[in-house]
Design goal:
With 328 residues, the protein is of the alpha/beta class. The protein folds into two domains: 172 residues, 3-Layer(aba) Sandwich (Rossmann fold); 145 residues, Response regulator (Rossmann fold, 3-Layer(aba) Sandwich). 44% of the residues lie in helices and 18% in strands. It contains 13 helices and 13 strands. A seven-stranded mixed sheet has the order 7-6-8-9-10-12-13, sandwiched between helices. It has a six-stranded parallel sheet with strand order 2-1-3-4-5-11, with helices on both faces. Helix 3 packs across helix 4 and helix 5 packs across helix 6. The longest helix has 26 residues. The chain is elongated.
Length: 328
C-alpha cells in the first residue's frame, strides 16, 4: 500500500503538472529547464532534512532563472530510480539532487546531464565525485557532513542546561551521516563531561522500544540525529519528548515548529544560494567536473520559547541573542 501511494503521487505529479510546464517552456522557446529530485518528499506541515523547494525557487529567480523548475520526489527508496529516470526522460538541462539517496539515483540515471547535489554523506566516500577539489564527472554541489554539527548541538544543550550530565541520543547507525554525527557527539561529550546513552533506531519499532526504555530512565536531555527515519517519525518524537518533559535538541527546524525545544541545522537560505549559483554557472556553460564541491559553513539555531516555558527552562540571553529564529 505504501509503495502504491508513493507511485501514485509521482505519476499524478509528472502527468498533471510537470509535462505541461515543459511543453509550455518549449513552445515559448525556453532554452533550458531545471529538474529537482528530493528524498524524502516535502509534506505539508512537516519538512525533510533540507526543506529547499520554495527557498530554492526564490534563489533561482534571484540569479535570473525564473521558470520551469521540474520538482520530483519520492518517499520510498524502491521507486527512486524510476522517478530519476522519468526526470531524465523529460530532458532537463540540469538536475538538483537533495539527499544522498537522491544523488545516487540521479547519478545512476544519467552520465550526461549535470547534477548539483546537496549531500549529507561524504560524496567522495559515496562515489559521487572523485575528489572535492576536482569532481571529474557530472556531479558537483554542496557537502554538509564535514561540519561538526554533533558538537554544536551538544554545546548548545549544555549552554541551556549547565548542570547537564546525561544525554540520550536517537540515531540510525545504517545512515552514514548519522553515524558520523554520533561519533562527533561522542568526542564533544568527553570534552564537556557528559555521559551519552545510545539508542540505535533503524525502524519505527526500534523507536517504540527506545521510548519504553527512556520513559523508565532519568536522562537530562535528548538529541535526535536527523536521517530519513527520524524525520519521518518526527511528530512522534516531539510528542514523546513533551510527555516526558525531556529537553531536546533536533537536527531540523521542523521539529521545533512542531513543538520541540531547539534545533541546529544548516542554513537553508545559504544552501539555496549556493545551489542556485552552481546551476547558474552550469547553464552558462561551466562543467560540473570543473566546479569544486563546497562545504556548508553557515548554520542556524532555532528555539521554541513556549516549549522552554512548559519545561520550566529559562533560555540564557546569550543563547537567545545567537538564535536565528525564536518561536514565541
Amino acid at each position: 500500500m505504501r509503495l502504491g501511494l508513493a507511485v501514485l503521487i509521482v505519476v499524478l505529479t509528472l502527468g498533471s503538472l510537470f509535462v505541461p510546464l515543459l511543453a509550455e517552456a518549449q513552445q515559448a522557446g525556453q532554452a533550458s529547464s531545471i529538474g529537482s529530485l528530493y528524498f524524502p518528499c516535502h509534506r505539508p506541515g512537516w519538512s525533510e532534512l533540507l526543506p529547499l523547494p520554495e527557498t530554492l525557487r526564490r534563489a533561482l529567480r534571484e540569479v535570473g532563472h525564473l521558470g520551469y523548475v521540474v520538482d520530483t520526489c519520492a518517499n520510498d527508496r524502491a521507486i527512486l530510480s524510476t522517478v530519476a529516470a522519468d526526470l531524465v526522460r523529460l530532458r532537463v538541462s540540469v538536475i538538483i539532487a537533495v539527499g544522498a539517496e537522491a544523488v545516487q539515483a540521479a547519478k545512476q540515471a544519467t552520465k550526461n546531464i549535470p547534477i548539483v547535489m546537496v549531500s549529507v554523506s561524504d560524496p567522495v566516500e559515496a562515489g559521487f565525485v572523485a575528489s572535492l577539489a576536482k569532481p571529474s564527472g557530472n556531479v558537483t554541489g554542496v557537502f554538509l557532513a564535514t561540519s561538526n554539527l554533533g558538537e554544536k548541538r551538544l554545546e548548545r544543550l549544555k549552554e541551556v542546561l549547565p548542570e547537564l550530565s546525561q544525554v540520550a541520543v536517537l540515531w540510525n547507525p545504517d545512515d552514514p551521516a548519522a553515524a558520523r554525527e554520533w561519533r562527533q557527539t561522542q568526542v564533544a561529550a568527553r570534552a564537556l563531561g557528559v555521559t551519552l546513552k545510545s539508542f540505535e533506531v533503524r525502524t519505527p519499532q526500534d523507536l517504540d522500544n527506545a521510548f519504553l526504555v527512556l520513559a523508565q530512565l532519568d536522562w537530562g536531555a535528548l538529541i535526535t540525529v536527523p536521517d530519513p527515519l527520524t524525520l519521518a517519525q518526527g511528530t512522534r518524537i516531539v510528542e514523546f519528548a513533551a510527555r516526558s518533559r525531556l529537553p531536546s535538541m533536533y537536527g531540523a527546524r521542523a521539529f521545533v515548529e512542531a513543538g520541540g525545544l531547539m534545533a541546529c541545522e544548516p542554513s537553508v537560505s545559504d544552501l539555496a544560494r549556493r545551489v542556485a549559483a552552481y546551476v547558474d554557472q552550469i547553464l552558462k556553460g561551466a562543467k560540473p567536473a570543473d566546479l569544486p564541491v563546497e562545504q556548508a559553513t553557515k548554520f542556524e539555531l532555532v528555539i521554541n520559547l513556549k516549549t522552554a516555558t512548559a519545561l520550566g527552562l529559562t533560555i540564557p540571553r546569550s543563547v537567545l541573542m545567537r538564535a536565528d529564529q525564536v518561536i514565541q
